[in-house]
Amino acid sequence: MKTFINGLSLILPTALVLYLLVWILKMTEHFFGDLILLVLPKEYYITGLGFVAGIAIVFFVGLLLKLWIVQKLRDFFESIIDKTPLVNTLYGAIKDFFNFFSNLKNKENNIVVLVDTHWIDSKIMGFITSEDLKRFDFLDMEEPVVVYFQLSYQIGGYSLFIPKKNITLIDMKTEEALGFVMTAGISSSKKSEDK
């Protein structure tokens, strides 16, 4: 039985990752392939051209965003979205999600913390996301910071205002800490077993 579970523990995650990659490839190929077929005759179309076009367009947009005029157009577009109910919430949430995780991985030190939870004599791992809280001066707290707590095996978490005296900075890379939290410590246990 243990041998079967070991095999399943390798096959299942690999199959899920491959399925997700294939799904992304198919969606990208279908979407951009249809756009290409608007200007290119069907007999000249090669499977995979849509995916290559998708990668090229994303890269090109990334390059364009370095231009001042494009940044101004993006700001104008986002200002319209900000005034549109529901759309602004969805757009903002997706944008913030990507920005948060891309910024999180770039920060290596002074962000991973343990927060004291005195009521059950324990600590919870989190990430400092904001220390400049001047607009929250009304909080009845001594030196508050915002700490984000990632939920294990989920896309999401929650943020709390916490006094600095209740947190302890730990010497751990952000990416390593994020992996630890998202897998509920299992990824760290596996590394220890492998050694």
TrEMBL record:
The UniProt keyword set, sorted, is: Membrane, Transmembrane, Transmembrane helix
Query: Which residue positions does the secretion signal occupy?
Result: none
Any Pfam family the entry gives: DUF502
TM region positions: 7-25, 45-69
Keyword Transmembrane in record: yes
Query: What is this protein's record name?
Result: DUF502 domain-containing protein
The organism is Sulfurimonas crateris
